[in-house]
Structures are given as C-alpha cells and as structure tokens.
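Protocol step 4 of 5: obtain the predicted structure for the target chain.
Materials: sequence only (see below). No template structures provided, no constraints applied. The aim of this step is simply to have a reference model before the mutagenesis design in step 5. Sequence pasted as it appears in the construct record:
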Amino acid sequence: MKAKNTLILLAVLVAIVAYVYFYEIKGGEERKKEKEAASELLPIKKEDVSGLILERPAENIKIKAVKKDDQWEITEPVKTAGDRFAIEGVINSVLNSKIERVVAKDTASLKDFGLKPPEAVLILIEKSGKKDTVSIGSKNPTNAYLYIRRDHRPKVELTSTSMSYQTSKKLIDLRDKTVLKFENENVERLVLKTKTGRFVLEKSGDTWQITSPIRKSADKSEVEKLLNKVKNARVNKFVVEKAVDLQKYGLRKPSFVFTVYLKPNQARKTLFIGKKTPGGDYYAKDDSRDPIMSISKDVPEGLQPTLFDLRNKKILTFKRADLAGIKLIYKDTTIVCEKDTSNKWVIAYPESAKAKSWKISSLLAGLENLKAAEFLGESKQAFRKAGFRRPELIVHLYDKDKNLVESLYIGRSYDAKKNYVTNRKKKEVFGVSSDDLKTIEISLNELKTN
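Step 4 output (structure tokens):
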C-alpha cells in the first residue's frame, strides 16, 4: 500500500513539474513573445526594408528613398544620394516603437487625434513590394504619447513620441550633405587655388611634395589638415538644385578652387567656392553635381595657407633606433658619444666616461623636433651671412657602420632670439629659435655622469 501511494505521489509531482515547465516557464516565454509581437507597431525586420516614403500633407512634402547595394538614394522630390544614418533613423523609430493601447476603435473622430489629415504619413516598402503605412497624428494631452493609425485600419492607437521627431525631418535632413566626397588615402595630387596663391602638392609614398610654385618637401600634417577641412565639410543649405547663372554666386570665376586627383586612375574631384551668402556662409559647388550649396565660412577660411605653412619645417630627418654615434664639434672642443656593446650611450672622446642617458635623449629630441621659423634661401650670400665658415656648433649623427646619417650646422645668432642653421642634405639656410637649441648645445660636464 505504501509503495502504491508513493507511486501516486511521484506521478502527481511529475505532472506538477511538467505543468510548471510547459505552461509556466516555456509557455510563459511563448506568451511573452506573442505579447511583444502583438505590441510591435510594424512587425517587420529592418533588413527587409528597401524603401520609404515620407509625406507631410500640410506642407505639401513628399520624400521617397530607395536602398541600392546598401546605399540609400533619394528619388523624390530630387534624385540625390541619401544620408544613410538619417534615413535609417526614421526607419528605426518606427520598428522600435510599441503600441501602448487603443484609444478609439473607429474613424469617426480621426480629426480629434490630428489624423484627418495626418501630420505625417510614413510608408515602409519591403523587398517583396509590400507597403506598410503609419499615419502620425498629434501628441496626447500629456505630450507623453503620439496618436497613430496603422495601414488605414479604423483603430487609433498610442505610441511613443520618438516618431514625431523623426518624421518631421525635411529633405535636407535626409539627403547626403557631403560637400566633396573622397577619401584621404586615395588622394595622389592636390591643386589649391586661393587668395594667397596657387599650390600643387603631390604624394610620394607616405610623404607630400610641393611641386608648384617651388619644389620642396611639404608638411604632411598641413596637407592633411587641408584635405580634412573639405572632406569633413557639410552642406548648410542647398540654395538651388541647378543654377543657370553661376556668376550670381561668384562661381564663374571662383576665389577658391580645391581639386584632388584620386588613385588608381587620377579621377578628379573639384570644389568651387564663390561669394559670401547674405547670412555669412559661402556659395559652393561640386564640379560633378548640379546643386549650388552654402557652406560654413570655416571652409574657405581654412583653405588659405601660405607657402611657409605648407613647407616641411623639420630640419633633420632620422630614426633614433638607427643611431650609434654622435659628434659635437664646438669651436674649441669636440665631444664624441657612442653606443657600447650593451646598447648604452657612453662618452668616447675627449675622455672615456658614462653618459647621462636622459641628456642624450634630450639632445636627440631637440634635434628631432627642431623646426624652421624662417626659410632664408639657398644663395651663397645667405650662407656667408649665416657664419657657417666658423659655426658655433656642428652635430654629426652616425649609424652603427659609422655612416653619416645627418649633420646640423649652427651659425651666428640674429634678431637676438634666433640662429642661422643648415643641414648636410637640404643645402638651405634656416632660421630657428635660439631657445630650441638649448638642449642641443650641451657641454662635456653636462653629459658626464657624476
């Protein structure tokens, strides 16, 4: 009898466990999913959306966008590239919205909810061609929710207000506002015509060269600053979609012309910048597109480099890791430092001694960071004036095979706070701040360890 009762109790326990699992746990999860699915405003997947239509009847606005190869294109009211993030922001606002509750079950009072006519109508087009429509009305009295109507159903429902902001966007909000589209890494040549002159710069490997009006090494960071100024610029306003009279905007003979040539086939991209707008912006035009744009004054103001700005102002070029010897030649003494077998810097001449590693590091940093404050020419007269026949100091840098890597010649001081300098390779006279030479002009006692 006891065994029979035990079996009955066991069977009841199994039944309870099965009920809890299949109904309460598993069934609860399924009911939760069903409830969530039922509350979705539009139960479709983002990846299935291939187009949208946004209408605002009161403003006579209709914007249509279609997705092609992962890129969005606006087809109405103009054909132009779309802003992917802005368009997908509109889509996400719908797909992430939930139905809070039904507030009316018929269309008799649509006007009371701002739905006759609606403030906006959003239509999502699926890849299959199916269209899902949401009509957006006014906010409820607490401004916490939004009245909407789905697919012309009779019911009026409440959802969050996030859609109100997204569906109030204008054409300019949804179109691509890139002023000139290119990637810095693809630029091989830059031609810049500005109020300060015309400059041609060409890329060779990882370095930039000025090829006009002179042939000199360019400051890479300055060139990239120019590229970024245009690449990151955004349109403030599309003034006209197609201009008949470019002269009106100062674009027939523009003050600024920015042209980049892109690899691999030297494709050309040109931006023209013309007159100031009444609001203080500038009119601009991408040579390959019809619209006249207005852009921030920061763009042309950032495209006015001088030749000095563009030139590479570094005096010496070397890699610390390649160095194994330093020679400092003063008028009255010479100091030689070398790396020993343990790769430590030591003084080899005029006496053998340990060198202060931080002093050597400071010396090399000073040489690495030494930049021209002035470019003083390549003539014999410029060299004679600089006093290089009896320099204040000559610095030679050597590699491990005792090959000469770089040389710096420090000449006379001038203007109280500057010195003439030159190097072995560039054969040009530079002016540098005398303060920048303090870590380079060091004595034997300063180098030696105590």
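Step 4 remarks: The CA atoms of residues 308 and 401 lie 36 Å apart. The two ends are 101 Å apart (CA to CA).
Proceed to step 5.
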